[in-house]
Every structure is written in structure tokens, then in C-alpha cells.
Amino acid sequence: MSLGSDEVDTTKAVLVDSGGPPSDLGVFVPDPRRWYALGVIAIAQLMVVLDSSIVNLALPSAKADLGISDANQQWVVTAYTLAFGGLLLLGGRVADYVGRKRMFIIGLLGFAGASALGGLAPSQGLLFAARALQGGFGAFLVPAALSLLTVTFHDPKERAKAFGVYGAIAGGGAAIGLLLGGVLTQYASWRWCLLVNVPIALLAVAGALKELKESKAGGNTRYDIPGAVTVTGGLVALVYAFTQAAPKAAGDPSRWTDPATLAWFAAATVLLVSFFAIETRTQHPLLPMRVLLDRNRGGSYLVQLIVGIGLFGMFLFLSLYLQIVHGYTPIQAGFAFLPFSAGIILTAGLAANLLPKVGPRPLMVPGLLLAAAGLLLLSRLTPTSSYATHVLPSMIMMSVGLALVFIPVASTALHAVGGHDAGVASALINTSQQVGGSLGIALLNTVAAASTTAYLASHRVLPPPVKAALTHGYTQAFMVGAGFLLVAAVLAGVLINIGKAAAAENDPAPVVG
Q1: Can you give the residue range of the structural domain that contains 4?
Q2: Of 2, 331, 341, 419, which has fewest CB within 10 angstroms of its CB?
Q3: Is residue 122 reached through a cis peptide bond, with omega within 30 degrees of 0 on the bond before it?
Q4: Which of 181, 202, 222 is the last residue of a domain?
Q5: Number of domains comprising the chain
């Protein structure tokens, strides 16, 4: 969620632009078409959420069609998440100052164009570029959508309902994306997993032109462009360094100490250090350090970043395992993931009820330990492992565990934050997960590729045991991911120290997956 930091000072603009003129008593007059506006925003949100999961089931077909190597397959996901996470904070500022409706429409049109480019891409390079463009336009679309919801619904009960609809789409849309991705890949082409965004986006644009009202934040409209450039460049360099470390062929060693790999790590370090230096000196920081350096808020962002590693890694490698090793059709793989989505949705309600009674730490630590146990169970997979005895239990453990984490993280991330920083604090929840997913997938993909090539090198038989080698690679990635979640559990236990009373005061922001 990304709202303008100056929004609290722009009551007049919001009164006029979002809900019709105020009455003589100065009360808001509700927009009679506000629920139609919610429908438009919901369509856009569904498109973005679909895109985050739909490509996982399309990936094996896209790899075969475009000749994408195992080392490069992660760019289909990370090109999107890097651009999205790296530009999200800037996107919120631009939407507030340029106009939320305007940026909403620009984001939709750009997302549609990038989706068409990716769907028609004749090469892997163009597909990766299109995915990055999708992420970039998504970074302007999502905060504009959330801000529009906030300025359209003023009544607390109505606003709660509106965000409930938005949150339900964020949670359930991933399951729809997995099923839709399976159907489109199996009966049409993997390309339609991207092309399907075009009609959805155009429908949302038509609705936005008719139903949405423009609103802007007043005050200073300067942007932290140097901060946006250095943080995005630093993250891209770090992901590319992980990719460079992967072996190029069976029997090759990992290349962690190669000069090219070290050069990319050095570039990433310089750019990210420069970003934090800029943020401490500029008058209009993209990421105010006072938001990040609070013990509980910083701890929640760190936990969310590490959760992104385990969550995105599970989706990517388990999807590949089910389709490539077990021979599942895309539709079968989509249905196989449904228990995960169901577990998240069902347990989230329980977590929301328990949070004000027990506080965040008693939910987060057991949840992270349970999710880590689920990934450890996946690390025991073999090419002949049963879905019912190995995959399904781990999915349920991960979904229940992570649902116990998401709600407390969203609440703790807003602990004691002032109205001036509420927008950036909310946006950081989503940014942390996207950045964690980007870095995690790049690292875990290198682990998987190196483990696969090492297995083939040590089992030189004909025919090569490809499925066994791939499974070995995936299981090593799951094991490393489980290690990260254990670290997150320790960090949550050490850093999160607010009690149930303080947690109950915070209004959890929707977490966009």
C-alpha cells in the first residue's frame, strides 16, 4: 500500500476530487458510484495478482519454446519482481503528485502493452525485458489503485469492506492464476498467460475513464530519482551476480569467485551503499530511515523479505518438479497448488482474531518454524515421491505457517508510524516481499543449477538420470530456503517485542502478493 506522505495535509483536495462537494456542515458526500469504482480497481488488482502466479505454470513450456536455460529461467520471475519491488515506493509518490487516476490508467495501458510484448516475444531476451516492463508499470498501477480506494471510501465501515474485497482478491487471485495458467498453457499456449492481460487491462481502462475521479496530493512534488536509480540498479546487479555464479554446463564448478561474478557483487554493493547514503542526506527520501530503523518495523520488513525467499522459491521449484519430473499437465499442477491457497485464506482469519489477544511474536515465530518445516519436508522429495504423502503435507504446513506471519507483519510494520510516513511504511511491506523473492529466486536457482550439474557429473551413466538430477537440485534449493525461514524465526523472536495492546492499535494494510 502506498499513499502520499502529504495526504494528511490535502483534505480540501480530497473533498473536492474524490467524493463530490462537501455539504454545508463540511461532511463528506459519498460518491454514489463508489462501488462501481471499487469494481474497476478490483479488476486491475486481479490482473496484477494473476500475473504473479500464472507464469509459474507457463514456465516449462516457455523454456522449451524459447530455449531458456536452467540458469536463466529465474529471470522470467525476477525481471518482474525486481522492477516491481524496486520502483514501488517511487510509483506511490508519482501517483500522489501526478494524479492517481492518471497513473492508474497509464499503469494499465503500460501493463497491457508489456504483456502483449511478452506474449509475442520471439526470444528469451525480449520476454525478460517485457516482464521487467510489466513490473515497472505494475509499480505505478498498484499504489495508485490503493490510494484511489482510500480517497474514494471515507466511511470507516465502507472502507473496511472495500479493502476486504481488495484483500480477498490479493489472497484468492493467486489460486485463480494457477488454475488459469494451467488451462491457458494446456489448451492454448503459454503465450496466452501474458496476452490475457490485454483485454483485462483495456476493460479496466474503460471503467476507469467512466467511474474514477481524479485526486492528487498537494505540497512539495519533488522525487528522489537518484534513490530510485541506485536501489533498482543495485538489486539488478545483485541478482545478476547470483546468476553469474551458476555453472554453465554439467560438471562445471560454481563460479562464485570468478572476476565477472565478483565485479557484479562489487557493483551491487556500491549502488546499494550509495542508495542508503542518498536516503540519509536528501530532503525528500524515497525511504526515510526513521521508518526502517525502528526495531519492530525494521524487524517486520526483514522477516517479510526472508519470507519472500521461501514463498517464491517454493512456487517456482515445486511447479517445475510437478510438471517436469512428475509429468503433471499444467491444469493438474494448478489444482495441486489449491490446498496452499485454501490454507492461507482459512488461517488468515484465525490469525487476525488471535493477533489482538496474543500479540505478533507468538504468531510469527511458530508460523515461521512451521513454514520452515514444510520446506524441509520438500527437501526430502525424490523423483517417485507421492503428492499425497510429501507434497500435500508440506503445502499445508507452509500455508498455515505463512498465514500466521502475514497478518502480524502487516500490523507490526505500521507500529508507531506517524501519518506522514504511513504510506511508505505500508508500501515497504510489499516491497520487502518482492525484493526478497527476487534475490531469493536468483540465489536458489543458482543453488539448484549447481546441484543438478554436480549430480550429473557424479552419475555418468546412459541415459543420464535427468529427473533425479533435477530433483536433487530442487531439494537443495528447498533446504536453503528452509534455512532462511529459520533465520527469520530467530529474527522475529529477537526483534519483535511489542505486546498485544500495541498490535491491536495498528490497522494492518493489505499485502499485495
Answers
A1: 1-222
A2: 419
A3: no
A4: 222
A5: 3
